[in-house]
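REVIEWER CHECKLIST
Item 1: Sequence provided? yes
Item 2: Single chain? yes
Item 3: Sequence as submitted:
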Amino acid sequence: MMVQMIKKIALEAVQAESPLRFLEAIVVSAPPDFQIKLRDNNKLIIPEDLISIAERLTELGKELKIGDRVMVAAIQGGQSFFIIDRIAE
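Item 4: Structure as written out by the authors:
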């Protein structure tokens, strides 16, 4: 019981030190129903309402397309994702 409590406290301390995780993702659905799939979790599809996109990636001619690889900052807790940029091929 005590060991589990210590593990939990240690895990929370580590997570508190790094509120962001940087992950690679793939665009699986283009706007208006924009979605991404995280590379390290092929089953999890992130819906548009949890995603923010850098403004430059929404400009005419620079929009994200299905199949684009992107770098994502995942906010601690996994309820908010910010697409930083497209990953060059």
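Item 5: Key structural point noted by reviewer: The longest helix spans residues 2-17.
Item 6: Recommendation: ____
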